Amino acid sequence: MLPAIGLAAYLMLIRPRLLRWGATRGEAQRPLPGDAIVRRPHIQATRAITIEAPPEAVWPWLVQMGGHPRAGWYGYDRITNDGHPSAESIVPELQRLERGDLLPTPPLGTGYTVEQVEPERTIVLAIRAFHVRISWAIVLLDAGDHTRLLFRLRIRCRPGLLGLVYLVLSESADFLITRKQLITIKALAESTYRKS
Questions:
Q1: Which one in 53, 59, 98, 132 has a CA-CA gap of 20 to 30 Å to 10?
Q2: What's the rounded mean pLDDT across residues 24-37?
Q3: Strand (E) positions, the chain?
């Protein structure tokens, strides 16, 4: 009886908050670029943070993301960047991002493919693998004296054990990694903007 109550409490109270950490209800419900890549997702998470800097100060940090040899994912580097530290400065040679580019994710040497780039506004990434389809929209909303940074992740897995394991692992780990990414990007962008 107790495990059932715990599961119900998680599904009704905790899970919805984790899936929209930092995002308003309106931000979580609005359509975003890349939504069509994953139709009828098993998981949709929209997370957000307010950055006290304009979009042009945030953009350079986003466009250089990616596993080594790129600037890192600004998450937990031992997990998300093969132990290489994420960059703490803007890397000029990584400031170009084009449709079709591959942003590596360790440890398997696979990664996200860039689907769409709209400078200082949007990056849409996707993974299309045998067992999973993922879209990740990174959206900058100009709010005058600050920026709202939204991350939307949509995941759909194939039926079967591999898909189920992927869903369970990704839902539990994704919140922690995404939260760390957003907080780190905020700190980096605000710090460099104040110095400029």
A1: 132
A2: 97
A3: 43-51, 102-105, 110-118, 122-128, 132-142, 147-157
